[in-house]
Amino acid sequence: MTVTPTAPLSQTALLIELEPVVAGNLDRHLRAAKEWFPHEYVPWGEGRTFDGILDGEAWQPEDSIVPEVARTALVVNLLTEDNLPSYHHQIATLFGRDGAWGTWVHRWTAEEGRHGTAIRDYLTVTRAVDPVALERARMTHMSAGYDNPHDDEVLHSLAYVSFQELATRISHRNTGRVTGDPRCEQLLARIAADENLHMVFYRNLLGAAFELAPSQAMRAVADVVADFQMPGNGIEGFARKSVAIALAGIYDLRQHRDDVLMPVLRQWDVWNVTGLDADGEAAREELAAQLDGLDRAAARFEEKRDARLARLARA
Ligand SMILES: [Fe+2]
Ligand SMILES: [Fe+2]
What we know:
There is one protein chain. The protein is mainly α. It has eleven helices and no strands. Helix 1 packs across helix 7 and helix 8 runs parallel beside helix 11. It binds fe (ii) ion (FE2) (2 copies).
């Protein structure tokens, strides 16, 4: 079917046109989401009182059975969840608080809040990370807040969260594996299942936008892929931390391209979208070039990582 390009839709028109899709996907989400309780995932009996007010034992690195890189990833993941008020503000401002959009925004926020609670309780009780450093990092990170370059554009925001929720899912899953702690892995797998449902919600919405306004949707996707940054990128020392996380195979460029971007792009069938105007076509070409560039960068990183592993094995 060939669709004739039409004039771009305003942000308000996009929100109104997509509202029925939000309502349908909200119903689907509520049917699919499983109720779960953070407290059931935490081995409370292993907890010990800390030093300070209650005069218990100070945290020391030997308390943690979790490898250093897993600790780094756990802290990055938790700080990302912690910044929720800032994300909530962004999406509530953009999507509004009325109707199905508003119901979704609140539901999504409540689910993300559960993630932060569960991870923090787990890390504190099992003494997996330094609680003083964690609290200071939380204060610094949340004080900076969060904004993204496209926070006033509906389709850009939908494209961003489609990728970001899948990225978070993969990162939680792989972090769990690297902890070497089956209980932590179990908790992070539970959280990852939520992130997957979030991804499906946003992906379906942008999928509907591709039918409604294909050129605008394609432009949004190309722009977001070009400057994609994880929401934790404001965390102190993020560059160093993300290299450690990539070296450990928790989240790297290859996974970003092949396991996050590509499956979502395939669902939208971006290469076969019809009815694009000149800018839509240009955006699709930019997207293809971005993916090629990412492929080369991922290959370079993998080469370096393999060489480093070989060096370490010889040492
Ligand atoms: Fe989350
Ligand atoms: Fe999520």
